[in-house]
Amino acid sequence: MGARSKWALLALSLVLAWAGWTGLNALLHASPAAAVEGMPGVSSGDQDMNAKVKKSEKDWRAELTPDQYKVMIQCGTEPPFSGAYDNFWGKGTYFCAACGAALFDSNTKYDHGTGWPSFTSPVSGPAVAFKDDFSLSMHRIEVRCASCGAHLGHVFDDGPGPEKKHYCINSVALKFVPFDAAAGAPGKGASSDASSAFRSLSSSLSETAIFAAGCFWGVEYKFEQVPGVISTEVGYTGGMTRNPTYRDVCTDATGHAEAVRVTFDPAKISYEELVRKFFSFHDPTQLDRQGPDVGTQYRSTIFTQNADQKLSAEKIKVAVEKSGLWRKRVVTEIVPASEFYKAEEYHQKYYDKNKIKSCGF
Asked: CA 146, CA 50: separation in Å to the nearest integer?
């Protein structure tokens, strides 16, 4: 056999081997629809898929926060135990943060211990779609919003009950609406067609705001007392180091600020009013310190998550400067929000746990 014939035979063998592997791989890794019975599967990696809601990446980037865009459009994952809904047990419906479609009911939420919101099932109807995910050298089933195609998380077979489904979902991909937010609010078994209900309840959707005003123990306590605030959590943001610890941040070398992420009901308190509260909780003329605490981690900063928040924060800052309440210049920074890292558990609700006041409060 000549050299040319040998190369031709080798090429044919490689093609047949590849075809055989492809067929075997397809057989071993069934489609998402087969893996999760009764739900639509998608084979495309495109963001649009068969989505009803279609927008350009530019539009999504303008509408979503940086964290939401990273997770929902770029298929990222928020750090475990960092999300607003990880240890959140309010009664209501969780909607897609991108398009407003109903996704999960609080009655199906449980604590899996992995650090992300976990559900046993989505709401009735084709609320979610599934896609084979072979990233990280493993086979997983990705969960996406069936209405807009946004990435939500993954589903596993290690959940409770007879179905044993574990929907592991990123908090930033969700928006929570309490059952009693308004008359007719979607409850158990809400349809995925509830996007219209979502829009009608837009004034009752929970939103988040992030503030830094010195030691986060006292700042969190103050925000907890504000009517309309649903929940609070302390953490680190605005720095360079990934997954910083309290010890790291205390070196004043990571660039992070001790911050509080506030989840609030805009039907009860506006973002502007929260900003006013923020300015009343501390001395905004102190640069890189607050009371006895000195360092850039104690700086006064408002971390805005969209253009509306930025405009509101700037307007209130100007009003505070003109009010004459402070003799010195207001040094509060207004900067775009970056990744928020939830602080260690012993820092959460520190005042309530220890029954002591700190940081001048």
From this structure: 8
